[in-house]
Each structure stands twice: as C-alpha cells, then as structure tokens.
Design a protein that fits this description.
By secondary structure, the protein is mostly helical. Helix content is about 75%, strand content about 0%. The protein starts with a helix and ends with a helix.
Length: about 170
C-alpha cells in the first residue's frame, strides 16, 4: 500500500516532476488508511523478530514496483502498452520459473486436475497480462505519479467482489 508514495518520490527524482500538494494529500490519506487497517486489526503492533523480515520484504517489493512503474515511462515512448506488458510478463515468468524449480521437482503433476490448470491460466496468464496492459496504458497516459494511487483500489475491489460475488 506504500507503493504510490515510493512511486511519487522516485518519479520526482528520476523524471524531475514536482509533487503537487494534492498528491501529498492523497499520500497522507493512503497512509492514514494503512494506519486504520493496522489499528482495526486487533493485533498488537510489534517491530522486530520474524515480522520484521516479512515487513522488509513487503517494503522492498513496494519499492521495486515503484521503480518498475517509473522505468516504464521512457519505454512507453517507444513501445505500446501491449508490447511492454508482454515483455514484463515474460521477464517475470522467467524469474518465477527459476524460483519455482525446487517445488516443481517434488510436485505430483499428474495429480493436478483441470481446474488447477485453468486457475493457473486465468490468474497467471490472463489477469496478470491484462492488468499489466492496463497499468502500462495508465503510465503512458497519466504518468507514474498519477497512475500509482490506483494500486490502492486492488484491496477495495477484492473486498467488494468477495462480498458480493462469493458471499464472504
């Protein structure tokens, strides 16, 4: 949820774009929302221990996503969002494949039903591919700083879909 903040900061540094007061307000609201979610979880807020490693991984992932968003800007002057998304998905697939090798050795592939393969295709190929095209189009049309806050809609949309579609 902090990726819009990192995206704005990196955008200001790399692309020399000024951060407008309304953007700071949006970041403050977003970070306040994160604070409310943490406070409302009923769990004790703790720093250090095993949680710190997971927190640092999440922050690093957020910063890497912000770099990804900002590095798309110059590339989208030469390539279409579709081409850039295809390249991003291909590079990501190679990295994920390398990480998955140990687990794939012990997997009983013949025991996986068609529904598992369909879920992999839909969630991996279609949704990630299509989402990357939309994201790259947003970066091309709006710029990294104005596109990044839309990532905070993901949990909101997931909540609404799970509530209304899955009755969760």
């Amino acid at each position: 949820a902090t990726s819009p903040l990192w995206t704005l900061l990196i955008n200001a540094r790399l692309h020399k774009e000024k951060i407008q007061p309304t953007m700071w307000l949006g970041i403050a609201l977003s970070l306040s929302g994160i604070g409310l979610i943490i406070a409302g979880s009923g769990k004790k807020l703790a720093f250090g221990g095993h949680e710190l490693v997971g927190d640092l991984i999440c922050v690093a992932a957020s910063i890497f996503w912000a770099f990804n968003t900002n590095m798309q800007k110059p590339l989208l002057k030469r390539y279409s969002p579709l081409h850039l998304a295809a390249l991003s998905v291909a590079v990501g697939a190679v990295g994920l494949t390398v990480v998955a090798i140990p687990g794939s050795i012990t997997t009983q592939w013949t025991s996986l039903g068609w529904s598992v393969w369909l879920a992999v295709l839909v969630s991996g190929g279609l949704s990630i591919g299509i989402a990357n095209v939309f994201w790259s189009n947003g970066v091309q049309q709006l710029g990294p700083g104005k596109t990044a806050p839309f990532s905070n809609l993901i949990p909101v949309i997931a909540f609404l879909l799970s509530y209304f579609v899955l009755n969760e």
